[in-house]
Amino acid sequence: MPSPTVASLGEIGLIERLKPYCAVGALGDDAVLMQLSPGRSLVVTTDVLVEDVHFSDRTTPPRSVGWRSAAANLSDLAAMGAAPLGITVGLALPPETPWDWVADLYQGMQDCLEQYGGAIYGGDVCRADQKTVSITALGQVDPQRVIYRHVAQPGQAIVVTGWHGAARAGLALLLEEIAADGVSDPVRQAWIATHQRPRPRFDAVDLLQQMDLTWPIAGMDSSDGLANAVMQICRRSGVGAQIMRSRLPIPPHLSDCVGPELALDWTLQGGEDFELVLCLPPGAAQAFVKRLGGEAAIVGSVTSVTDILLVETEADSHGQPLDSKGFQHF
Amino acid sequence: MPSPTVASLGEIGLIERLKPYCAVGALGDDAVLMQLSPGRSLVVTTDVLVEDVHFSDRTTPPRSVGWRSAAANLSDLAAMGAAPLGITVGLALPPETPWDWVADLYQGMQDCLEQYGGAIYGGDVCRADQKTVSITALGQVDPQRVIYRHVAQPGQAIVVTGWHGAARAGLALLLEEIAADGVSDPVRQAWIATHQRPRPRFDAVDLLQQMDLTWPIAGMDSSDGLANAVMQICRRSGVGAQIMRSRLPIPPHLSDCVGPELALDWTLQGGEDFELVLCLPPGAAQAFVKRLGGEAAIVGSVTSVTDILLVETEADSHGQPLDSKGFQHF
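^ Those are the sequences you sent over. The predicted structure of the assembly is below.
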């Protein structure tokens, strides 16, 4: 039987079908109540994802759109050092959208929240010409243990979790920009998974909370690219950085597959890996990398000179200015 | 000089220009921190407004779109008995949107928040084919003093704040569905203001908090119409209601202007007046109406029989079933 459209269900019918995906009572009143733990501050972030701008049926099935939408927002919470409480979802849909698409979207969001914590606390649905998913994520944080962009200090090491460029490589595979036969099956699947089902790094946040560190810590997530994250932190902190080319977390096999130049570009500028970029005292940085089981690397250091340079060795103080293409959504 | 478009400003330029409208520090990190008062629960609500579905340049200048978007969300907080903390704004815009439109939108939201409390805590901007404004409002409430839909009890009086139908009449004037010369200038302006700049009823919420009442109280806002609010409360509480036709808050002059039948329809079904519908013990209801200075009326009572009837007199137990057209956004 073909899936009914959202127009045939009507707004009330659609909301009824969405209830099982939401926290109990989430759609019963004008708003929903949530409880913070004592002494915690609320952390809030909003992202809007638009079809054919941020996602497309061509590269991402709706369940993965749901996961990615939730994960991108949760990653912003992780980037502040917060733990997730939940999300609200504002959904604008063309009337001919099949119910199955909506169900898969919500299932994907629920999958992600089940893994990392939190629930869907209702939202809104309405008609539009283009699918738009607007998510607000809510988290809580000990106000003494927040990660901010503006508190980096010269002499600190710059630590990056995970590989960078894998999400971009996964997208390239899905768009057939690069040939799938250039890489082994497991590698291909890992890159595509990084694009479709990114993992917000709450494990790294938990580890930071457990370590004996001086707070606040400087950092942010790398959703708009590794270079962009370094630049944002430096600008907001009034510092500079030296990034060592040889230490960059280029995913294994990427240089072989697309050549060293494009691999470097995707690692620095690819974006959407949703990893963390942190500034820590050198000793703490080493301990952090070790305790995260190698899923992190020290890629450079914070400098008092405000240039941001890509250098060949630690002693090299010239290097090449690192620019960030960032993402311009207009 | 013509206004630059959002495409010519770029995402970064646009965000720079939005900063003055936002809470200090709201756009500097991946997310924003907010502080709840001790012992308060968080209240969250999300609304999506789409151009040509919820608003149109024809009837509503962007500054009023901003006010209405904020007010509609704040009204959902008031409907829960909460006080506003602030909003986040997810904005999807066609690239050719003039900056002036965006500035007016934010100015309107800021106007509303200045009046009722709270600030803009950042958000997101991105490209889309159609203007979409997604607002999440955050509030706080004493968890012992929440207004819910499901706690109405037979014997309670149904109290409604303000006039109903004025927002619909204002829209009709703007759409030229009705002739402007049928009403005096002040009346016309009042109806249009109700449509363009509705007032969330935090004054009524404050009054409820000051009165010696048994909590929780049943109620909701009348954003989808007075009849819809009565029906939602009754359904969720497993009760019915008798609404007295003669007590309905039909705006002065509306019957003269559009005839008694349409006036009744707009009062019951018009929607977007953003008033409150509350269920209170009869004595408390009378005190509430008196203390609100006549800006409220007892329109009927909660019954154990689950029918919802529009009756002529209190003694009339037959009446006419009240149906709610509600709003179906698909």
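Residues 84 and 139 of chain A are 4 Å apart (CA to CA). Chain A touches chain B through 72 residues (CB under 8 Å).

Shout if you want it in another format.
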